[in-house]
Amino acid sequence: MPSPAPFRRVLTAHSSSDVDGTDVYIHDDAIVPYTILDGNAHVRPLFSHMGIPTTNAHSITTAEIEDAAGKVTDVTLPGGTNCQVTDIGPGYRTPMHRSSSVDYNIFISGSATLITPDGEGGKEKRTTVKAGDIVIQRGTLHAWETDQGQGARWYTVIVSALPVRVGDKSDGKELLDVSQLD
């Protein structure tokens, strides 16, 4: 999959000289996603926050914006939130995975198939989603697959959560670190 074209990120805060909340700073830059999964997908954290509820610092610098995105070394930022973009190329299937998070996946182009186990010994449920659809993933096992003709792009807001538990046990199947999927 060729690298997707850079896309625009616009972030607002107050300028450092603001004294009354009326001087708004606009950070406007081009973002290039990172290559993962042997070149079959690209991701890029856009911004993150530690803690929920989070804070809104009065002003923010370009370095602080990059530092916030750089804190995300995995899909989930433990104890925080992450906003990222994901591109998956045509004809690719991700490994089955889960994360300790609630993920709000907003599809903006292409289509993909959400694959989940059905609890019947290896069978799968397959749900096709397309641009305009939203998938809310709540710590469940899943994979994504695109058809041969087109890939998919979506934005995800990822909110850290406690691991899924059945009764008093966690099933222990956590998402691989994104760097391990490269």
UniProtKB/TrEMBL annotation:
<protein>
    <recommendedName>
        <fullName>Cupin 2 conserved barrel domain-containing protein</fullName>
    </recommendedName>
</protein>
<dbReference type="InterPro" id="IPR047142">
    <property type="entry name" value="OryJ/VirC-like"/>
</dbReference>
<dbReference type="InterPro" id="IPR011051">
    <property type="entry name" value="RmlC_Cupin_sf"/>
</dbReference>
<dbReference type="InterPro" id="IPR014710">
    <property type="entry name" value="RmlC-like_jellyroll"/>
</dbReference>
